[in-house]
Amino acid sequence: MTLGRRSTEVVMCAAALVATSLGWVPSAHAHDAEAIVCAGEESIAFSPGLTLTPRPTDVRAQTAYRCGAGPGRVLTATSSLSGHSSASTCLTLNSGQAQESVRYGDGSASEISYSTSAGRVAGITVVRMNGTVTEGRGKGSKAERTVALLPGSLPTACLTPEGLQRSGGRVQLQIHP
Questions:
Q1: Going by C-beta distance under 8 Å and a sequence separation of 6 or more, which residues neighbour residue 9?
Q2: Which of 5, 87, 105, 154 could crosslink 54 through cysteines, CB 3.0-4.6 Å?
Q3: What torsion do the CA atoms of 2, 5, 10, 16 make, to the nearest 10 degrees?
Q4: DSSP assignment, residue 66?
Q5: Rounded CA gap, 97 and 99, in Å?
Q6: Cα(96)–Cα(27) distance, rounded to whole angstroms?
């Protein structure tokens, strides 16, 4: 079954709503700092590729975002993410750690450190990352990132020795002051 762009967006929005309803409550001083909400497209590479056998996997991702940073302010942004999972397969991505470097169109940047977890919703792998901005714009703020992954090749790639090496999907990043 293949999902169209509209179906992917619906699943991504549903996942984002579930993710945001589970944990974040704004502090009494949230209006004193800038909240940032970004959405975009991500391209992901797995090394080694994902197969049906669990094995340590490095993950690299490139993302193009459009971000809202205050009333009426829209910024473009790009990011590079690197992470590691101790035992991932095509069926599940084991929890791990990740680092994201976000570069905003106004020249500012955020460095974010995450812990990750993953699950499947309607056949789509949803990765949820929770972390903290460690440097730059929003330093000290909490960050939440949700990715809905779609395979970059046929699922039969999971049966080959090389495995599934690429994927992509929709991503949402929220930085909470």
A1: 170
A2: 87
A3: 100
A4: E
A5: 7
A6: 28
